[in-house]
């Protein structure tokens, strides 16, 4: 798609000498928002116009949508120059009656960390982070749309929940910017549909000069009030009602992006920001059906022109199955994402006369029940699902199983995870996981097929409870002189995030760095260093530090830990770095360490400006001792690991 560095003025729209701009109140009514909640200036609303359209920027590639168990991918969109050429849709499985639409979705993925870290400045990172986990193709779409100068105007950044509410409107409106050529000069000539960054249907000719007609003509076929609020805007408004086929497809495509945009954050939606996303998707699909019925009845030349275009026939099928797929996926949040009229809209879309026009136009067999996103699923002898797989919540290591019951002959099964076929033996009426791991969490479904057709089951969600986080600190206790230092380490289990935050429990109890290096205070006492898990802040562990006053000789003991061969520890570790003994006497040192280690101890005495070893113990174990008769002077002790690692206790008696 072409880059849009600055948005050009909106051209004249079909059916009017100049477009009557959508007012802020009218746009708010269309999306189910109050004019105040949109927070968009009247000038911006005027620029965008009622039905949008325009360019965008190239998106960062996202994980691909799955169009069939073995479908040929739709051709990737290419930046186009005038004149645009129609993209040829895939052949292969789509023409064999096995075509299904699905996308990778993980709607229960945990985004609580993104919610807790949200602020008004990181709103785009929050959006793309949520979509990256729950609706991958939406991540690329949001990143690309955010490059448009008007995207931010649709987004409410005052809170995470307000952001969630506004995403349907933002993605819906900005999808219009992806719908047409970047120049917006061919508004009346071509339509397009974004599926994701890898799968796009682009540059389908509208053939308006060959008999296209205003969409307000379809009003005569609407016999219910299921879409009355949108009919008032899209069909009865003086400017909106005069839009031709491009008005139908532009709103249909935008509705098919707004629905998953809302679905991905459904549990965080408080207000009305996305309460009609299901209505919009179904309404505009029904408008396409009614437009084709009106074309056949009153504009037969135009109907036949569209029907003669193979790309158009497949486009109609794909858009129908996309709608069915996202309506199915949004069922668990139906109350938040749709009005009470959704049932009537489903009845309209699946009415025999409205399915019949699509089948006559496209030549494909359409599913007969809502939620079935596979073509040919309702043909004679095709499978019918009587019992859907159920969602499961399990703990790590627990066995889980999904099962389906279906009727039909010579049935074949293919289980899917997040829309992609599961390799291996995932081809029976049930699919089992013997010992669940965190990576198994996701959305599971099964495609049941035979020679007569196929049907895709409802989605069952596997939620994996995380393992309990545990944490420990090494060494657990240590003695230091005032001003001394000690490096602590923390071990975290039960989470892939092993990072910790360090702190000192007592005020004035010294300090600890982010890497666990503790510095004792000048005041003697007992203090505690705390390591807190960053994965679960309710989990922490303590180490105890006994701080003694700095000075000359005396007794007590030192405890600590050596990391391995070549590591060492010096006592005293605090300034000035040595003991001063004012009298002659016996210097006694006793070391006890791990049985698998070889530790050695050395007693140093100052001689002039240098230091020399006056006594040492270098036995083959970590049990060592020194008894040295020395004179008054300055001394320090060095403990070294010859081999091995672990905790030790070093006791001493020095002359005072």
Automatic annotation (TrEMBL):
Sequence ranges assigned to domain Ig-like in this UniProt record: 383-463
Coiled coil feature spans:
none
| InterPro entries linked | Ig-like_dom, Ig-like_dom_sf, Ig-like_fold, Ig_sub
Q: Which PROSITE patterns match?
A: IG_LIKE
Organism ancestry: Bacteria, Pseudomonadati, Pseudomonadota, Betaproteobacteria, Burkholderiales
- Could you tell me the keywords of this UniProt record? Disulfide bond, Repeat
Q: Which organism is it from?
A: Roseateles aquae
Protein name, per record: Immunoglobulin domain-containing protein
**What top-level branch of life does the organism fall under?**
Bacteria
